[in-house]
Amino acid sequence: MLAQLSLLFLFVSFVFRAALNPTDANVDALLGGVEKPRVLLLTAHPDDECMFFTPTLSSLLVSPSISKDTEKSNARRNAEVYSLCLSVGDAEGLGAIRRDELARSLDVLGVAESKRWVVDHPDLPDNITLSWDEQLVAETIRPYVLENKITTILTFDRKGVSSHPNHASLLRGAANSVASLPQTIARPRLFSLITVPVLHKYIGPFSAVLAKFDLVSGALLKRFGVQPPSNLPVFVSGVDEYKTALRAMKQHESQLVWFRWLYVSFSRYMWVNEWVEVSPSSAGRPPRTA
Fold first, then answer.
1. Position 70 pLDDT exceeds 50
2. Average pLDDT over residues 215-242
3. Considering only Cβ atoms within 10 Å of each terminal Cβ, which end of the chain, N or C, has fewer?
4. Is the CB of residue 172 less than 8 Å from the CB of residue 285?
5. How many angstroms separate the CA atoms of 182 and 284, rounded?
6. Which domains does the chain show, CATH number per domain?
7. What is the spatial distance between Cα 188 and Cα 40, in angstroms, rounded to a whole number?
């Protein structure tokens, strides 16, 4: 009985510690090893930034004064984070309100006012039944990438996490934009946020526990000379980062309907972001089928 209680105590302690503290892995793979990384988060609608990307933003924008890892702190201090949202979210006629809500959310998340933009283009509407034209997306993104010397672009994958066609359009457009840049300049690398199966998508803080278990297992394998199965960039929030995501989401007052409260309570993306690098030449191709 005592042994069982001890095991239970160890398990509860592990879960608590896993949920309490943030962690990440393979961040250098995402930042690209450049001296001063310039990271652009490309989103479709106001509230995407806090509903899907807070674990990454919280890590990249971490204050050096609270980081226990000097090398990691220096990398974050050098990284500049930009935000580009391609619509004002005017599906219900609330575009002006949602633009202001996005600004307040990005204030909470720590993205500087001079490094964030919102596009309001008639051919890029917030529409759950419409895919955006990839050439238009590419042309819209290109000047922001060039003028700010962006080194890494982060956006949704082909599935868009929630299957929203506006989300899914961003990767193809970003890939088109990168591929069309002059070869005489350093082209930014492109990463997409991995859409996980539905069963993994809504397990709330347990997603942080499982992600940290995977990271610990990978570190142990490396110690014994075994290459772990994944070297993907991963960002895992702790309790404080989750609270930041909630505060950012609360800025989107017009969107706080009951099902979004369910989302922020149970979504994996409030806790974990996993990224995969995408080749611009293959981003527009449909996934292979067995």
1. no
2. 75
3. C
4. no
5. 20
6. 25-278 (3.40.50.10320)
7. 10
DSSP 90: G
DSSP one-letter code for 276: E
Q: Tell me what the mean pLDDT of segment 102-112 comes to.
A: 97
Return the higher-pLDDT residue of 42 and 71.
Answer: 42
Burial class (CB in 10 A: 0-12, 13-18, 19+), 73: middle
Q: Which residue do the tokens 């106001």 mark?
A: 46
- Identify the burial level of 159 via C-beta atoms within 10 angstroms of its C-beta, where 0-12 means exposed, 13-18 middle and 19 or more buried: middle
CA-CA distance, 222 to 208, in Å (whole number)? 21
139: tokens are 């042309």
Instruction: List C-alpha distances in Å: 284 to 29, 45, 54, 157.
Output: 22, 21, 26, 10
Model confidence band, residue 282 (pLDDT cutoffs 50, 70, 90): low
Helix (H, G, I), strand (E, B) or coil at 204: coil
Instruction: Give the residue carrying structure tokens 């993907």.
Output: 232
* Residue type present at position 207: S
* Predicted pLDDT of residue 75: 53
Is the pLDDT score of 189 beyond 90? Answer: yes
Measured CA to CA in angstroms, residue 37 lies from 57, 150, 201, 203, 267 at distances of 14, 8, 30, 33, 29
Strand (E) positions, the chain? 23-25, 38-43, 80-85, 116-118, 152-156, 189-193, 234-236, 272-278
pLDDT at 66: 39
DSSP conformational letter for 45:
S
- pTM, whole model, 2 decimals? 0.88
